[in-house]
Model the fold of this input.
Amino acid sequence: MNADNTQCATPVRQHTPTSLPLPKAKGTMPVVDGILHADLLPPEITFELTAPIRAYREPYVGITADGAPAPGLYRLTDTGNRPTAAVDAADAYLDALMPFERTVARLPMNSPDWRLWTNAIPTWTPKGMRLERLTVTQRELALAVIEASLSREGFDLIRAAMQLNGALGELIDDYRDTLTEFTYWFTIFGDPTSGQPWGWQLMGHHIDVHCVFIGSQLVMAPVFLGAEPTSCDTGRYAGVHAFDDETGHGLTFRRSLTEQQESSFLLSRSISAPDPAGSWNGRHLAGAGSDNLILPAEGINGGELSADQQDLLLDLVRVYLRRLPALHAERKLEEVARHLDDTHFVWRGGHDDVCAFYYRIHSPILLVEYDNHPGVFLSNEEPARHHVHTIVREPGGNDYGKSLLAQHYATHHTPDSDH
Done:
């Protein structure tokens, strides 16, 4: 195991709530009632935060190496796993809404709003129902749709991220109309009971999940999940924590790589400022507004790894895939394993017990990014492990299930305004 003697520019102790930085000064961001008024921020930040609203109506291509999706990456098939529970849950949720609520709670399957999302706080009025504004019964029914669609681990992670958003509001005692457990917009797309493709989006601060059902297949991408902080041990959210495995398995794989291999995957030994790879929103590349990102693969590929290292890389991939129901997760892992020689890995930062870091796994059919950030609501100016962003994409044109949907419609029918 390779030992890294590189030190962080500003070492940070293990990130428990008792060692978190102080909150930033109160009321410094123009955030009111779940909406960020980005035009009141510095121009460079405004530009970054408004990328989704500028890009979401562009013709969709997908994340590619050169602007052209490779053919044959995704295939329409029958997994034998019908989403009956998710359909029933969605039907129950929609039935619990008033007719005027359903007009914004459910959008056509071909709505461009699939691609309108942000990991920050939205700078527009989102579609869908805000969970906080639903009755308790309606909200439980909405959450039941998410629970019925994912694995237990996937649902628990989403709920933990929601709760940590509420914990952040309590911790800093600010933005209490926005940093809450339920300031999230939930939208159903299509008609779940029609037998045709349908899906849902959950969108808000640090949470963007897109789940699409095409027959018995399920696509969950793009997914953005994060938290600041990643754990809480005081107040009503005491004991909530998230992203331990995304962090720990990432470190385990990184530590298995040798010094001789570093020239193939190590982009920098620190992500402390000044970091030319970073921006106000971190080092990740495939976030909101990046549906058509051109991203050539870089880093060490699976064929250059030892058998043990390959197993550890697949263990890390499994952390992200096990958010899916077991059958879908295992099928996807098998597909990733078949593409292992064309799967690349890069790392920025140290890999001791305190340094912040970034990594990217880039397979032809899966893109994963993990990034540690400076404080946004907390005052640490350097990236730290208590602020995590993760992204999962299906490159080559299958975010939002687009590739499979195109095959479905070509085989069965032309999509209309509702399907």
Notes: The chain has one domain: 21-412.
